[in-house]
Amino acid sequence: MPPLPPALPPPFSPLLNVVLHEPEIPNNTGNIGRTCIATGCALHLIRPLGFDTSEKACRRAGLDYWARLRPTEHDGWDGYLAGARPDRDRLWLFTTKASRPVWEADFRPGDHVVFGKETRGLPGEILGAYADRLVALPMVPEERSLNLATAVCAAAYEAIRQMAVRGDLSVDTAGRIVRPAAGEPRR
Q: How far is residue 26's CA from residue 165's CA, in Å, rounded to a whole number?
């Protein structure tokens, strides 16, 4: 098998780490994977998953970009914490139970944005342990939630917007995200 092309030129330092806790719907995860490829984000999947991520299943689903994405799978929340070792102050957990809007989060390159499963969101014990890190995408009172892929995309682009305003990245004349090279001054 030929070597896989990198998702971004090495060394890969993801713009964000998108974390899906026990995702259930393969189409949502596929759309989120595509968003991650397009924005230079890494994808973390916390088991159990509601679908198969084998090479054969991805090929059958037409996920031709999945090999470039190279998502990291973790056995449960504790496995994710041990494997990814996110800084607690760089975790942002998305939930409809939060009163803090997404734009009040201070997103930085490499942050971890965490989303729960489609049917139940994040477990109460995780929300309780990170109560100061909870954010929401505001909605009108009559609605209960957004589609998971939509929520991830909205969060990723709010983080990108903040990083662009701060100068952590820029957008070139072709509309492409450009990150400063190592040692290069920020704009």
A: 34
d(CA 138, CA 119): 19
pLDDT, position 52? 78
Whole-angstrom Cα distance, residue 40 to residue 37?
Answer: 5
Strand partners, 75: 47
* CA 155 and chain centroid, separation: 8
What is the predicted pLDDT for the residue at 184? 58
Say if residues 160 and 15 touch (Cβ distance below 8 Å). yes
The single-letter code of the amino acid at 168 is D
pLDDT < 70 stretches in the chain: 1-12, 55, 57-62, 182-187
SS3 assignment for 59-125: HHCCCCCHHHHCCEEEEHHHHHHHHHCCCHHHEEEECCCCCCEHHHCCCCCCEEEEECECCCECCHH
CA–CA gap between residue 149 and residue 126 (Å, rounded): 21
Whole-model pTM?
Answer: 0.89
Whole-angstrom Cα distance, residue 88 to residue 165?
24
Question: Smallest Cα–Cα separation from 20: which of 10, 30, 6?
Answer: 30
Eight-state DSSP code of residue 11: S
CA 143 to chain centre: 23
